[in-house]
Amino acid sequence: MSGHSKWSTIKRKKGANDARRGKIFTKIIKEIIIAAKDGGGDPETNSRLRLAIQNAKGANMPKDNIDRAIKKAVGSDAASYVETSFEGYGPCGVAVFAECLTDNNNRTVASVRSAFNKHGGKLGTNGSLSSLFERKGIFMINKEGISQDDIELDLIDAGAQDFESDDETLTITCAKEDFGSVNRRLNELGIEAEEAGLKRVPNNTKTLDIDSARKVLRFVEALEDDDDIQNVYHNLEISDELAEELG
Known about the structure:
Elements: H1 3-14, H2 18-39, H3 47-58, H4 63-74, E1 82-89, E2 95-102, H5 105-118, E3 122-123, E4 133-142, H6 148-158, E5 160-165, E6 169-175, H7 179-188, E7 195-202, H8 210-224, E8 229-234, H9 240-246
Antiparallel strand pairs: 1-2, 1-3, 2-8, 4-6, 4-7, 5-6
């Protein structure tokens, strides 16, 4: 498995505990709100909302929570979130990219800057890491009850580029331009991804010893614990040894 898939698997396992699940729900609700506010509350005509609801279901979010978030978004008292991002280098020179949804940019800037400083990182300017990450479509589906060989042929025709598998999950990667066609093909096959979206995948990774890698991941987790931060990407190579220790 690639470092990206290993890290996704580790995060999914950590998301099983109640405290982490609450953080995940908070981030998904914000994505539902901004999607519904921008494109309306009908997922049939709002592809971003449809995807956010799909990810909510994949995270086992109760339907009532989803419905409340949509109603809040289309109401007059809906929070006004702004999308922003931060990029720079964490401990040991590992590149880090954070995507945010915030209703208070000053608070978010201060919080992110504090995390970089506290963990020995250096916050950079927007665009400084543009060549280090590439946006790709990522789908994570539960393998139970599916024939991997059969669906791979169908999805390759739709634009899928890579398939990686662990005991429970099949991770599918495609070019960002093919995200919609792969998603439609999965729907036609009756397969709903547990998680899907455009992710930032590193073009090159950085290998560190275990102790240094732990420092980096403590920094990454500190960012992920911030409610204003939706996604954190990094180019740390997740070795088999590191994945075993963390998993």
